[in-house]
Design a protein that fits this description.
The complex is a heterodimer. Chain A is an alpha/beta fold. Chain A is built from nine helices and five strands, in the order H-H-H-H-H-E-H-E-H-E-H-E-H-E. Chain A folds into three domains: about 10-55, no CATH class; about 75-120; about 125-244, DsrEFH-like (Hypothetical Protein Ychn, Chain: A, 3-Layer(aba) Sandwich). In chain A, strands 4-3-2-1-5 form a five-stranded parallel β-sheet, sandwiched between helices. In chain A, strand 3, helix 8 (about 200-210) and strand 4 (about 220-225) form a beta-alpha-beta unit. Chain A is elongated and about 65 Å long. In chain B, about 75% of the residues lie in helices and about 0% in strands. Chain B contains eight helices and no strands. Chain B has helices spanning about 5-30, 35-50, 60-80, 100-105, 110-120, 125-135, 140-145, 150-185. In chain B, helix 2 (about 35-50) packs across helix 3 (about 60-80), helix 5 crosses helix 8 (about 150-185) and helix 7 packs across helix 8. The relative contact order of chain B is 0.09. The chains are: A alpha/beta, B mainly alpha.
C-alpha cells in the first residue's frame, strides 16, 4: 500500500533524474498512466529541467586554450626541457653520423626516427573510448564535435587512432535509427573514419524492451554487454576513457 | 626510452581538459552570474586539475573530480571576498546580471528569465540544481562534489525546483498581462 502523499516531489524529481530503481520506476509509471494531475506534475518538472538546459546551452567561455596559458607551460615545462635536451643530443649524434657517411647515404638518425615512429604507429595506436550517457543534445553535439576533431587531427598527422563511442542510458538516443538528431553526421563520420566504432549498451536496450520500447540502432552499431563492463575492459586494455 | 607515446598522451590529456572547459564555465557562470569570474574559476579549476592529475584514482570520476575542484575554487573565492563562513546560508549579494553586455545579446527573454530565476536561488540550491540539470550528475556524484549528504542534495533540489516553477509561472502571468495591456492600447 502506498502512503497518502505518494509520490512526493522528491520522488518525482528522482524519477525525472533517473535515480529510482526499476521497481520504483515501474510503480510510478503505472501511477502516471492512471493519474492525470500526477502526469502534469511530472511533465512540469521534466519541462523545467529542459528549460534550464536550454537557458545555458549557448554559454561559451572566451578564454584562450589552456596550452597557451602559464599554467600549462609551468606543468609541462619539465617535458619541454627534456625534449630540448633529447633534440640537442639527437642533433649532435646526427651530425657526427653524417660526417662519417658517404654523401648519398640517407642520414641514419632520420631513418632511425622514421623506423621508431613507424613501429610505434603500427604497434601502439592511441585508443580512446567516449561514453555517452546523456540525452542532452548539447552534450551529444559536444561529444561528436570533440570526437570528430580528434579523428581529423590524428588523420591529418598520420597518427593511428582507434576510437569508440559507447552509448548507454539516455545517451542511447544518439544511436537510435529514426530518433537520433545526428544520424546523418554519424554516418558521414563512419564513412570517413573506419577507425571509429559505435557500441550500444545491451543492458539499456533490454531495459527499454522491458518497458515495451523497441529501438532500431544505426547501421554498423555493435553491442556491448553493459557499459560498465565495456569501460572496465577497455581501461584494462590501456584505452583512454572520456565520459561525454 | 620511447618518448612519442608520452607526447601523444599529453596531447590527449590536453584535449580532455579543453573538452570540459565549456561545461565548467557554464556551471561556474550559473553559480556566479558573472562572466569574468566564471572564466577565472574555470581557468583556476583546469590548472589545479592538471597539477593534481596524478591524484585522480578513478578515471571514470574525471568529470566529477573536476567539478569538485570547481566547487573548491568557488568556495575559496568566497573565503577571500566575502566575510562569511557559510556560503550556503548567505544572502545573494552579487549584483544582478540583468544589464550586462552579455545579457543584452540574449535574444530570448525566456532564457534571460530562467537565468534570473536560477540566480535568485540561494547558492546551495543553485549549485545542486545546475549540477543535476545542466551536467546531469547523479545525486551521489553531486553529494560528493559539494561534500554534503545525499538527503541534502534531494531536499535542496526539491526546494530549488519548487521556487523555479513559482518564479517562472509568475513571469508567465506577468507577460500575459503585459501582452493584454498592449492589445487594449492598440
Amino acid at each position: 500500500m502506498t502512503p497518502p502523499n505518494w509520490p512526493s516531489d522528491e520522488h518525482i524529481n528522482a524519477f525525472i533524474d533517473n535515480e529510482l530503481d526499476s521497481a520504483e520506476q515501474t510503480s510510478l509509471l503505472e501511477a502516471i498512466e492512471q493519474d492525470e494531475p500526477l502526469r502534469n506534475r511530472v511533465c512540469e518538472t521534466q519541462g523545467l529541467k529542459r528549460l534550464l538546459q536550454h537557458a545555458y546551452q549557448d554559454m561559451q567561455p572566451t578564454s584562450t586554450p589552456l596550452r597557451n596559458r602559464f599554467g600549462w607551460r609551468r606543468i609541462y615545462g619539465q617535458y619541454l626541457i627534456a625534449a630540448s635536451v633529447l633534440l640537442l643530443i639527437g642533433g649532435s649524434s646526427g651530425w657526427m653520423i653524417s660526417v662519417n657517411q658517404p654523401a648519398d647515404t640517407p642520414p641514419k638518425l632520420a631513418r632511425l626516427i622514421n623506423t621508431i615512429g613507424n613501429d610505434n604507429v603500427a604497434q601502439e595506436p592511441d585508443k580512446i573510448l567516449v561514453q555517452v550517457s546523456s540525452a542532452n543534445p548539447v552534450r551529444l553535439q559536444s561529444a561528436l564535435d570533440e570526437t570528430e576533431q580528434l579523428l581529423t587531427s590524428y588523420d591529418a598527422t598520420k597518427r593511428p587512432l582507434e576510437m569508440e563511442i559507447l552509448a548507454n542510458g539516455n545517451g542511447i538516443n544518439l544511436l537510435v535509427d529514426g530518433g537520433s538528431p545526428f544520424k546523418a553526421r554519424i554516418e558521414k563520420m563512419q564513412a570517413m573514419y573506419p577507425n571509429l566504432h559505435l557500441y550500444a549498451c545491451q543492458q539499456t536496450l533490454e531495459g527499454l524492451a522491458a518497458r515495451g520500447i523497441h529501438v532500431h540502432l544505426l547501421p554498423n552499431t555493435r553491442m556491448a554487454g553493459s557499459a560498465l563492463e565495456e569501460i572496465n575492459r577497455r581501461v584494462r586494455q590501456g584505452w583512454d576513457f572520456v565520459r561525454a | 626510452m620511447n618518448i612519442l607515446p608520452l607526447f601523444y598522451r599529453q596531447n590527449v590529456e590536453e584535449r580532455r581538459f579543453e573538452q570540459i572547459r565549456p561545461r565548467l564555465f557554464r556551471v561556474a557562470y550559473s553559480w556566479s552570474r558573472n562572466r569574468e569570474l566564471a572564466e577565472d574559476l574555470t581557468q583556476e579549476t583546469l590548472i589545479r586539475g592538471l597539477k593534481h592529475l596524478a591524484q585522480l584514482q578513478d578515471e571514470a570520476k574525471f568529470d566529477s573530480w573536476l567539478f569538485t575542484i570547481l566547487h573548491n575554487c568557488w568556495r575559496d573565492h568566497f573565503r577571500k571576498h566575502v566575510d562569511t563562513d557559510n556560503i550556503d546560508e548567505m544572502a545573494d549579494t552579487l549584483p544582478s546580471d540583468a544589464k550586462t553586455p552579455e545579457n543584452e545579446q540574449i535574444q530570448s527573454q525566456l532564457v534571460l528569465h530562467v537565468r534570473q530565476a536560477v540566480a535568485s536561488l540561494p547558492i546551495g540550491q543553485r549549485q545542486v540544481v545546475t549540477l543535476v540539470d545542466l551536467e546531469e550528475f547523479s545525486y551521489m556524484e553531486v553529494a560528493c562534489i559539494l561534500e554534503i549528504p545525499i538527503g541534502t542534495v534531494m531536499s535542496r533540489l526539491c526546494r530549488a525546483r519548487q521556487s523555479l516553477q513559482t518564479l517562472l509561472k509568475e513571469h508567465a502571468n506577468t507577460s500575459a498581462r503585459a501582452t493584454g495591456t498592449l492589445r487594449r492600447i492598440k
